[in-house]
Specification:
The complex is a heterotrimer of chains A (325), B (307) and C (545). Chain A is built from 12 helices and no strands. Chain A has helices spanning 2-6, 21-31, 49-58, 61-78, 115-151, 153-168, 171-179, 188-214, 217-224, 229-265, 277-284, 292-320. Chain B is mainly α and 307 residues long. Chain B is built from 12 helices and no strands. Chain B has helices at residues 2-29, 45-54, 61-73, 86-121, 126-140, 143-157, 175-201, 204-211, 216-246, 248-253, 259-268, 272-300. The termini of chain B are close together. Chain C folds into 2 domains: 1-24 and 47-213, Dipeptide-binding Protein, Domain 1 (Dipeptide-binding Protein, domain 1), CATH 3.90.76; 291-517, Dipeptide-binding Protein, Domain 3 (Dipeptide-binding Protein, domain 3). Chain C contains 17 helices and 19 strands. In chain C, strands 11, 12, 13, 16 and 17 form a 5-stranded antiparallel sheet that branches. Chain C is globular. The two termini of chain C are 46 Å apart. Chains in contact: A-B, A-C, B-C. Chains A and B meet through helix 1, helix 2, helix 6, helix 7 and helix 10 of A and helix 1, helix 5, helix 6, helix 7 and helix 9 of B. Chain C: Residues 1-22 form the signal peptide. Chain C: Keywords: Signal. Chain C: InterPro entries: Peptide/Ni-bd, SBP_5, SBP_5_dom. Chain C: Residues 86-467 form the Solute-binding protein family domain.
């Protein structure tokens, strides 16, 4: 017990803006799992955590719905022309702010662009930002956090301090400062910024779960049998420590998509001619009184996407957490 | 206990230096702020050079940082471009943001924990499902959309509140902005409390308490809640810093002249002194809040003793 | 040290209080009309960027305050923009180089100090001197000795301008380093305001609470949030305040200010955001104003980039100009608060002042087919795409840049021909311009300093002028401007300036977009609201109640 509470890496976990905190704190409950009475090795048939979880998920309606939504999103991100025939960059100012009409179910935005087409095409960049940022954060975070947790000592303390530093800086503030100098109109600066300020969150989780997994009997056994560090880390610890990272990452994915919109609202998100929900939402926000449809559709699409990822993460967490079963 | 606090305080020093250095470098990356001061024309080179010298911008970054930190320790946070002392800006901005944060935290505690307890005790019940869904919706909609919608509906269409906050920014005016600021965290607190309550409900000590025949109320408040609140308090504690610095969006929507506003202005004008000064204080708040949270643990969980 | 500061400040405050009570007795008999001359109105404001010194304020928000608390030698008529004598009894010259100024008697600052010739000379010397970091110092650049007090590099060798001499209690002489016939007309610019001794004796206290000689005095000032100005009862001028005072409230976002106006939380918004213009008639039922202001928006080109400065480039520039549907954009995006530009000046100058409707000719008309042809003839767009640079932080430029790009894309039939290129902050935007790092056309807005055609041309297109951001250079243009400046006959001078403007047109040195109007909306409490040609509300004439 003292070990756990002395290294405040495990307890003070928040900071990536409000939006990121859920992941950290909820995962804490999870990361404790293997210590608990149920986690010390399932009795009876040795079924893996993963097959158990999968069996659970298949029956969970929340999982099915959110997975379907996400599949749909991925498909239209890859091939938007499947359901939208127009060109999102073709706009006619004469039709600015007009409402719904035949062939243009969502109406037109302030520049006279078709809102339906833009909403469909907007999925690509939003999903790209979410997925790439999450992959980057998860990779960097779990490698650094995992190594620090496994080897401990000086590098561990150093990493803990560094994560503290990053947690102390409000994320929106960091975005304003770092992204306001960017002139590139690709998605990479935004993703890079999210990885830069997001990895400590995952590294903290990864570190915690590696420390827990390290103390398991089978790891001690492997070590006693003379297995090398890398073998222990890859074969024995990683598979058992990765669950919390996956959960947090899924939930974080949704929040990254929402964060992109907030950054656009503050004028430092993605830049035209990129089509993204964030850009459209922020462009529509002053018109909320005159032409609410301009705001409603992209914001609705964004909310549904974020919701789908958070619910997916939620379902995965429930499935991976034997205590709540 | 004493040793623990001292060690934690010592650990704060590198974190403090690192965080201020990081933000200092970040603001420096933004480049030369002088050009923005001359309107739509070129600053004449002589004045620009002299301004740079006066703000210490002609020196290498590390030297600027050392000078700055040296001044900070003597209580001099520098001067903003409009000729005002940064400490003066702080003295007007922080009280406003502190009030806003208090309102937000109160919302989190009162509404968040109540909803969390109710849903946690009734898992699977319709109340539980609908609250859970509601929290997800709140999390999914970006704060600025929520804020703009509430401002439009409550402030303009229905006229229940003033759409913006006056310079005095008293508690009454800050209720809606506070709710907007707290909304996402509020949803988290609800979910966190719910999970924690549901988990602890099945623990041995609760079963024992029930078996002893204690009244339900006493079991919930004295045994269940006290233990379940630990992760919630962690969250709220660390959220204080995030709320204060993250109020940029909320303060912008409701025209509140607090920390978020000053930071936003500071960044737009690339005013290193303002931005670094405010962030320095925010980092301190964050570190101290974290320490307090950890100390609160000992109060809440009798099993924890700090050596 | 701190104690001392406080003591002087307190003494200053006491003096103001005394002055106020001494003159308070007979102050309220000039109200007239229906208004309550004691009532205070609230108005939207933005946080001034620089300290509120007259020679250090170069944007509208600080200018608003200076316009209320200062009166200079000249004042631009709020309606016509013509420069009229204010504190100047007369300004004489025989050679357009040496001027003799006589200051009217009876004027004083609101702390009781009299306004003398010395008040002006001290203020101007302060404004010009390099060591005071005044951002508008270049306004004194025509005065002899400026190169000594404000050298381009190195240390200054004099503290005062040799061209300024106090010759009596109320008279001083100005010697210019070159002929400048309309120089007296520039003296209405706030940088030329007089300053009281208190400014120099206790600068820190003055900055906290500026003291001037205008119809209002500052009651309290919370930086970044609010400034309360109150009518100065002892004000000796004719343009006394018709209301009890003005509370300026800082807004970060003018949409919020407008929302506040609708909710009855604010009396006056002097920049109605484009997004709200569609509702403005219904929301305010006529309490809305949309008048021309001396502001023109253009697109400048980086002439230091050889892609934009080769033979045939002017055809590409003209083609781009003709691909912009100005009327549709001003009607839709700006709801007629901008007027399509047909020259490079502003209608507020009037025909007599040099504005010439249609000088631009077909180059400013929307002709998509011809535009396409011209761009092709000129060798096509450099790099196949134009990226219009603008700053994303203020002024909601994104909307019109996107609209301009869509218009160009539609005209050229290529949806990638033009994209916006936002730069995060204004400072960074200016940095890129100053460092000659722009690669495509970029936003250039020009708000006149004084209503003279010279001000719309020389600072923007003269070789190496302070606001010639595109670094365009043309010998013919420079020659014509020089001739015009030394011309003593105003009509002749203006026609020479127009000839120079035609050189700008023939090269399409910048694409004129539209003339910006000032817009304002106000609450039911107010009447007699007007905007001056600088799009600043004429506060002293507003009636409350």
């Amino acid at each position: 017990m003292p070990e756990r509470y002395e290294s405040e890496g495990a307890i003070s976990g928040a900071g990536m803006g409000g939006a990121m905190d859920l992941a950290v704190t909820e995962a804490e409950t999870l990361e404790r799992t293997p210590e608990g009475p149920d986690g010390s090795g399932p009795a009876g048939k040795p079924r893996s955590l993963w097959s158990d979880a999968w069996r659970d998920l298949r029956r969970n309606p929340v999982f099915i719905v959110s997975a379907l939504v996400i599949c749909f999103l991925v498909v239209i991100s890859l091939w938007p022309s499947l359901i939208a025939s127009g060109n999102p960059l073709k706009c006619d100012l004469a039709k600015a702010q007009e409402g719904s009409q035949p062939g243009h179910p969502f109406g037109y935005d302030g520049q006279g662009c078709d809102v339906y087409t833009r909403t469909v095409y907007g999925a690509r960049k939003s999903v790209t930002v979410g997925v790439c940022a999450t992959l980057g954060v998860a990779l960097l975070g779990s490698v650094l956090g995992g190594l620090a947790g496994f080897f401990g000592g000086f590098w561990d303390s150093l990493l803990s301090r560094v994560t503290d530093i990053f947690f102390a800086i409000p994320v929106v503030l960091g975005g304003l400062v770092l992204l306001s100098v960017v002139t590139s109109n690709t998605v990479w600066p935004v993703i890079g910024f999210m990885v830069l300020l997001g990895w400590p969150q995952i590294s903290r989780i990864a570190r915690g779960s590696v420390i827990t997994a390290k103390q398991n009997d089978y790891v001690q056994a492997a070590r006693a049998l003379g297995a090398s560090n890398s073998r222990i880390l890859l074969r024995h610890i990683a598979p058992n420590a990765v669950a919390p990272v996956i959960v947090v990452a899924t939930i974080a994915l949704g929040t990254y998509i929402a964060l992109e919109a907030t950054l656009s609202y503050l004028g430092v998100g993605l830049k035209p001619p990129t089509v993204s929900w964030g850009i459209d939402i922020s462009a529509a926000s002053p018109y909320i009184r005159n032409a609410p449809h301009m705001l409603l559709w992209p914001a609705g699409a964004l909310a549904i996407t974020v919701l789908a990822f958070i619910m997916l993460g939620d379902a995965v967490r429930d499935a991976l957490d034997p205590k709540l079963r | 206990m004493g040793r623990y606090v001292v060690r934690r305080l010592l650990q704060m020093i590198p974190v403090f230096i690192g965080a201020t250095l990081l933000i200092f470098l970040m603001v420096n990356v933004m480049g030369d702020p002088i050009a923005g001061l001359c309107g739509e024309r070129q600053c004449d080179p002589a004045t620009a050079a002299q301004l740079k010298k006066e703000f210490g911008l002609d020196k290498p970054v590390w030297q600027q940082y050392l000078t700055y930190m040296g001044n900070v320790f003597t209580g001099d946070f520098g001067t903003a471009f409009n000729g005002q002392k940064v400490t003066e800006l702080m003295s007007t901005a922080f009280p406003v943001t502190i009030r806003l944060t208090i309102v937000a935290i109160l919302f989190e505690i009162v509404i968040g924990i109540t909803l969390g307890v109710v849903t946690g005790l009734r898992r699977g019940h319709p109340v539980d499902t609908s609250v859970l869904l509601l929290t997800l919706v709140v999390i999914s909609v970006p704060t600025f959309v929520t804020g703009l919608l509430l401002q439009l509906l409550l402030g303009v269409e229905w006229g229940w509140i003033k759409p913006s906050v006056s310079p005095d920014a008293n508690f009454g005016e800050l209720i809606v902005p506070g709710l907007v600021l707290a909304s996402v965290s509020l949803a988290y607190v609800t979910r966190l409390t719910r999970t924690s309550i549901a988990e602890n409900r099945r623990s041995d000590y609760v079963r024992t308490a029930v078996a002893k025949g204690l009244p339900r109320r006493r079991v919930v408040v004295r045994h269940l809640l006290r233990n379940s609140l630990i992760p919630v308090i962690t969250f709220i504690g660390t959220d204080i810093g995030a709320l204060m610095g993250g109020a940029i969006v909320t303060e912008r929507i409701f025209n509140i002249h607090g920390v978020g506003y000053q930071l936003y202005q500071g960044i737009l004008r690339q005013n290193t002194q303002t931005v670094v000064g405010f962030v320095t204080v925010l980092v301190l708040v964050f570190l101290v809040a974290n320490l307090l949270v950890d100390l609160l643990y000992a109060v809440l969980d009798p099993r924890i003793r700090y050596a | 040290m701190r104690g001392a500061t406080h003591a002087t400040w307190a003494a200053g405050a006491a003096a103001i209080a005394l002055a106020a009570t001494a003159c308070g007795g007979g102050g309220s008999d000039n109200g007239g009309g229906s208004g309550d001359s004691g009532a205070v109105l609230s108005s939207s404001w933005g946080d001034p960027q620089n300290p509120l010194e007259p020679a250090n304020t170069n944007e509208v928000q600080g200018g608003k305050v200076l316009d209320m608390i200062f009166r200079g030698l000249k004042r631009y008529d709020p309606k016509t923009g013509a420069a009229q004598d204010m504190l100047a009894e007369k300004i004489d010259t025989s050679d357009s180089t040496n001027f003799t100024v006589t200051v009217k008697s009876g004027w004083k600052f609101s702390n009781g100090e009299p306004v003398t010739a010395q008040s002006f000379v001290d203020a101007w010397n302060y404004g010009a001197s390099l060591k005071n970091n005044q951002k508008n110092a270049y306004f004194f650049g025509y005065i002899e000795g400026y190169d000594k007090v404000h050298p381009d590099s190195g240390k200054q060798t004099a503290d005062t301008l040799s061209g300024l001499k106090v010759t009596g209690e109320r008279t001083f002489t100005i010697k210019l380093s070159q002929k400048f016939s309309t120089f007296p007309d520039t003296l209405g610019y706030p940088a030329f305001a007089p300053l009281p001794k208190a400014f120099f004796d206790n600068h820190a206290a003055w900055i906290k609470k500026p003291v001037g000689n205008g119809p209002y005095q500052i009651q309290s000032y919370t930086k970044g949030s609010k400034m309360s100005l109150r009518k100065w009862d002892g004000y000796p001028g004719d343009d006394k305040a018709q209301n009890g005072g003005v509370d300026l409230k800082v807004y970060t976002d003018n949409n919020t200010a407008y929302t506040d106006l609708m909710a009855g939380n604010l009396d006056l918004v002097d920049d109605v955001p484009a997004a709200q213009l569609k509702n403005v008639k219904a929301d305010l039922q006529g309490r809305y104003l949309n008048t021309p202001a001396g502001i023109i928006q253009t697109l400048s080109f980086p002439f230091y980039d050889k892609n934009w400065n080769k033979s045939g480039s002017q055809k590409v520039r003209k083609g781009l100009s003709m691909a912009i549907n100005r009327k549709q954009i001003t009607d839709t995006i700006f709801q007629k608060t901008r007027t399509p530009a047909t020259d490079w000046t502003s209608p507020v100058l009037g025909e007599k002042g040099g504005f010439q409707d249609g000088l631009c000719g077909d180059g400013c008309e929307y002709k998509p087919d011809e535009a396409k042809k011209l761009v092709k003839e000129g060798g096509g767009l450099p790099g196949g795409q134009v990226r219009i640079g603008y700053n994303a932080d203020t002024g909601s430029h994104k909307e019109w840049v996107d609209a301009v790009c869509n218009s160009i894309n539609n005209a050229l039939d290529n949806d990638k021909a033009c994209v916006g290129n936002p730069v995060g902050t204004f400072a960074d935007f200016r940095n890129k311009i100053t460092a000659k790092k722009m690669t495509g056309p970029f936003r250039a807005g020009w708000q006149m300093d004084y209503p003279l055609i010279q001000n719309f041309l020389q600072p923007l297109y003269y070789t190496n002028a302070s606001s010639n951001d595109g670094h365009w250079s043309n010998k013919d243009f420079d020659k014509l401007v020089n001739q015009a400046n030394s011309e003593t006959d105003t009509a002749k001078a203006i026609s020479l300036f127009q000839d120079a403007e035609k050189v700008v047109r023939d090269n399409m040195a910048a694409i004129p977009l539209w003339y910006q109007n000032g817009s304002a909306g106000w609450s039911e409490r107010l009447s007699n609201v007007a905007l001056n040609p600088f799009s600043v509300p004429v506060y002293n004439e507003i009636k409350v109640g």
